[in-house]
Amino acid sequence: MASAPIDTLDSEYRALREGCGVLDRSERGKLALSGSGAVEFLNGQVTNELMTLEPGEGRYAAFLTPKGKMLGDLRILAVGERPDEPPRELLLDTERIALQALFDMIRRFKIGYEVDLHKRTLERGLLSLIGPGATAIAGGNGTEIGRLLDVEHANVPVHIEEVTCVAARTDVGIDLICDAADTERLLEVLRERGSLPICEQAAECLRIERGRPRYGVELDASVIPQEAGLNERAVSFTKGCYVGQETVARLYYKGKPNRHLRGLRLSAPASTGEELLVGERVVGHVGSAALSPRLGPIALALVRREAEPGAIVSVGEQGTSAEVIELPFPAR
Question: What is the model's pLDDT at position 319?
Answer without folding.
Answer: 87
